[in-house]
Each structure stands twice: as structure tokens, then as C-alpha cells.
Write a sequence for this structure.
């Protein structure tokens, strides 16, 4: 058993192998794939622990038994790691097809306004979508299930995720390394009350670049939290915007305050060599 350092990008299989080999955790160019050239250039199978758990049950009880649970397109069960604003966070197992509302009821969540399904890079849904089902054909998930009640500011939730992606980018490719940082700065600008509709449009444009040009899935999905919350919780963004199409970022009067103090003058012509 090898303990990793916790880098998010090492959830990608080839970056994980790089880390196991003692190298920097950066996704490899593929092909070749790990099944032909993986750990130490040997054929390597990379699977989630949950896959091995399911495989053991199938080996004991058979495929027909496994397919009898879940939906027609999503056989078996799903392990969810439930966290956030709920009375009973923890690990839950449900057959595929279970509604989000059922999970919320079981974990003791109240006054829930949003659920982040499948972690930071997943899907953020609001209360109108709690009848959706955990399944590949509806809400696919890696297992994370984060609950946010009505006391949470969904803009700040998205901003936190953006900061996470900017920090966790491995830096290998320019679109992700620079793009996640630009989105972080735009979100900080909005948080300061200096944002504009143009800034939101910029985030959408950066997302297109990240999706088309990033080296791995981290960059492809880094803007998901912002785009989902922009769509479902738009007022949380609009209340932080200035009323103009631009955001004033320079205070001329403030910048000249020191010069006025040095000259002892405070009249309009003090900075232009004009006598009072």
C-alpha cells in the first residue's frame, strides 16, 4: 500500500502511475494506455476500490444477481460519501436509480438549496431537481454527495471550488495552468463587488478553451461549479456586479493623495503646475 500526497490530479490514472514511480504527478500522453504500458512500463490495471468490491460480489453471486439491482442501464449499487449540511453525514450505499430526495431524507438534510453531485468537478443541482436519480442515464457520480442548506452563499461555494482547481492544477498545460488562475481572479473581482456581465462572459469563454485544449479532465471540468451556479443561482452573481458595463478599478483621487500631502496643496490644479 502506497500513501499519496493528496494531489487531486493524481485521481487521473496515468498521473497516479507517475506518482507511484516517484515522479511528479502529471497525466501522460496516451496512447500508450496503462493496460499496455503502465507502472514501470509494464501492463497495469487501474481500478477504483469500489470496482473490486462489486467484482467480489459478482464472483460470489453471479452477474444475474448483480443486474437485478439498479436500473436497466445502471446495474448494481453505488456508494455515496455524504457530507455537508446534514445531521447524519457518512458512507451510504444505494441501488442505482435512487432519487436525490431519498438520500437527503436519510442523511437528515433540511432546508437544502443545492447538492453537489460527484465532487468539485461534478454537477450542482437545486431543489427543483431533487427528484432526479443517481444513475448513469440521469445523475452519474463518482460517489461524492455534498449538501448545502439555505444559509450557504452559492457564489462563495463556487468561488471556493475555483480556488481549489487553480491550486490543484499540475501546471503541465498552459490552458489549465493559466485558465484556472484567470477564472479565480475574475471570481475574486466579483467577490469584491467590482464585477460586470462582461466578466461572466469571459468565464464562459475561458471554459470553452479549457474544455477544448486542456491536457486532462481537471481542466475540462474546472469551470463546472461556476457554470452550474451561474445557471441555477444567478442572483448570487448579479448582486455582486456594478451597474455599469465596466468595473472601476482605479481611484485617481486616492492615488494622488500622497502628492497633495507632500505639496500641501489640495486645489484642482495642484498636480498640473498651475498656481492656485
Amino acid at each position: 500500500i502506497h500513501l499519496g500526497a493528496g494531489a487531486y490530479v493524481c485521481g487521473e490514472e496515468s498521473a497516479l502511475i507517475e506518482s507511484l514511480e516517484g515522479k511528479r504527478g502529471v497525466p501522460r500522453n496516451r496512447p500508450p494506455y496503462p493496460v499496455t504500458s503502465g507502472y514501470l512500463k509494464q501492463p497495469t490495471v487501474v481500478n477504483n476500490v469500489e470496482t473490486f468490491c462489486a467484482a467480489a460480489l459478482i464472483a460470489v453471486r453471479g452477474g444475474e444477481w448483480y443486474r437485478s439491482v439498479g436500473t436497466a442501464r445502471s446495474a448494481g449499487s453505488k456508494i455515496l460519501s455524504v457530507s455537508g449540511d446534514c445531521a447524519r453525514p457518512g458512507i451510504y450505499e444505494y441501488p442505482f436509480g435512487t432519487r436525490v430526495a431519498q438520500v437527503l431524507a436519510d442523511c437528515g438534510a433540511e432546508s437544502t438549496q443545492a447538492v453537489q453531485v460527484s465532487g468539485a468537478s461534478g454537477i450542482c443541482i437545486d431543489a427543483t431537481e431533487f427528484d432526479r436519480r443517481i444513475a448513469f442515464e440521469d445523475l452519474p457520480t463518482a460517489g461524492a454527495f455534498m449538501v448545502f442548506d439555505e444559509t450557504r452563499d452559492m457564489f462563495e461555494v463556487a468561488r471556493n471550488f475555483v480556488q481549489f482547481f487553480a491550486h490543484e492544477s499540475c501546471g503541465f498545460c498552459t490552458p489549465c495552468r493559466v485558465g484556472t488562475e484567470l477564472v479565480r481572479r475574475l471570481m475574486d473581482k466579483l467577490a469584491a463587488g467590482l464585477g460586470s456581465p462582461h466578466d461572466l462572459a469571459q468565464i464562459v469563454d475561458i471554459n470553452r478553451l479549457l474544455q477544448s485544449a486542456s491536457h486532462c479532465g481537471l481542466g475540462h471540468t474546472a469551470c463546472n461549479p461556476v457554470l452550474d451556479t451561474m445557471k441555477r443561482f444567478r442572483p448570487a452573481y448579479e448582486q455582486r456586479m456594478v451597474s455599469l458595463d465596466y468595473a472601476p478599478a482605479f481611484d485617481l483621487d486616492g492615488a494622488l493623495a500622497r502628492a497633495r500631502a507632500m505639496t500641501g496643496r489640495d486645489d484642482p490644479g495642484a498636480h498640473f503646475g498651475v498656481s492656485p
User: Anything to note?
Assistant: The chain has a mean pLDDT of 92. The longest helix spans residues 174-191.
